[in-house]
Amino acid sequence: MKNAAFKLAGIALSLSLAWSASAAPLRIAADPVPHAEILNFIKKQDPSLDLQVVELTSGVNANELLANGDVDANYFQHVPYLKDQEKALGKTFAVAATVHIEPLGIYSHKHKDLKSLPEGATIAVPNNATNLSRALFLLQSKGLIKLDSKFSDPASTLATPKDIVENPHNVKILEIESPQIPRSLDDVDLAVINGNYALEAGLTPAKDALGLESAAHNPYANILVTNPQLAKDPRIKELAKDLTSPQVAEFIRQHYNGSVIPVSAPQS
Fold first, then answer.
1. Which residue in 154, 179, 201, 261 has the most C-beta neighbors within 10 A?
2. What are the pLDDT digits (tens) for 213-254?
3. What's the pTM?
4. Which domain holds residue 243?
5. What is the CATH number of the domain that holds 120?
6. How many CA atoms within 13 Å lie on the side-chain side of 104?
7. Where is 131: in which H helix or E strand?
8. In this structure, are residues 251 and 129 in contact, taking their beta carbons and an 8 Å threshold?
9. Is 241 exposed, middle or buried (0-12, 13-18, 19+ CB in 10 A)?
């Protein structure tokens, strides 16, 4: 009888813990724009899902927050960046949803088009490995540089400035922390800026960029990431469903005018 009682108590405790987890707020670390804005839209659309949005500030590593259990998920990054972070942190995370693309763009306060780029121009690019490589692939697609032919797949090969084999304008590559690049626009000829930081700086990528990544077959879609043990949590599944819904896709299309592009939901 005692053993049966202990088993029943254990089952009751497990059910209680599971209920407590599902009833607790879902803590999501996100960049302010557009990620937190999208999550706040979901809070209005799905009030039954208790979201606690933690807006990221410069210097905070959202994957460390997730690994340490300080948040339940994060929404700010793409798969190549996540893979690089998993290696750096010695952790394995789980992708719960693929949501949108923020095309990387080339901007300038000094030049109206890429054809007017002077000899020896300075180009600011992100200094983290994945977005640095992404920026170099973008510059190559616009004919400003050429990378070694072994760098054919931006999703699986990371290029650095040392891998530039043709540089017809003798451009200088200046590596800067991604959030700081918009502030460098007055000091450089061109700047390659992530979509979220461009939006935060008041730029409209679809209108202001001198060159944008193609959205077609783009490997840099932004994702919802969680820990493997939470991947089947009903709250995570519900948020993933919301993020990939036609309603959220329509919000993204209307609110960002082509500067953020939904990838998972058909147009409603």
1. 154
2. 988 888 999 999 999 999 999 999 999 999 999 999 999 999
3. 0.83
4. 25-102+220-262
5. 3.40.190.10
6. 28
7. helix 129-141
8. no
9. middle
